[in-house]
Amino acid sequence: MYSFAYVRPSSVQAATEAAAADGESKFLAGGMTLLPALKLRLARPDRLVDLAGLPGLGDIRIERERVDIGSMVRHAEVAASADVRRVLPVLAELAGVIGDPLVRNRGTLGGSVANNDPAADYPAAVLALGATVVTDKREIPADAFFTGMFATTLQAGELITRVRFPLARRAAYVKYRNPASRYAMVGVFVADVGGAIRVAVTGAGPCVFRLTQFEAALTRNFAAAALDGMQVPSDGLNQDLHGSAEYRASLVSVIARRAVAAALAR
Q: Which of 34, 72, 122, 131 has its CA 20 to 30 A from that of 78?
């Protein structure tokens, strides 16, 4: 570690003002990624702005045709929410398979979405459900939010305050997880939202992405068999000691069919 300023503001406005001061600032939410990065000196901000306890960021609201979740709501809270389980159970189920108990009880929705780890689970939900990311400055549609590995359209000092998830008529998330980290080697989220079929993939590429060719096939026939024979090109997919790009491409097709079957079984 190294020296840095620590700020614990009392409001969203104070947090963004602190982040706008001279030098590099980082928002601290659950710290599941940021603190290890600090220890390894992969991140060296001049200032940490702690978001713990800020009013208005820790609640879950069920509104007409959507679930509205504050950015500081922890994964375990989403997983345990009776309201989320009632109106959008797939989101509670996804939150319940993120990482391990430590990660679920410390990690936050806003932190995960802002970090945009290539193998994170929440980005798949945001993209497949066509959610809206709300910041202190604007509202960003999911299709415009994720831009690349650990990259989003967030500007310096811009703070996610809420994420608004539309309700789905049917949806499922299935992932093939790394047995050690629990991160998704491949995760596929399939959703029917307002009659539009959306399929989002995490873990396979540098950034969460949609499978438009799968969406078109499922729009014609929402059945696992509709994806039989369909393949995903391996070009540009992740490859590491856990699996090649070709292996991940094959997994996407398999997991997508399982996700459709799971959505139909609800």
A: 34
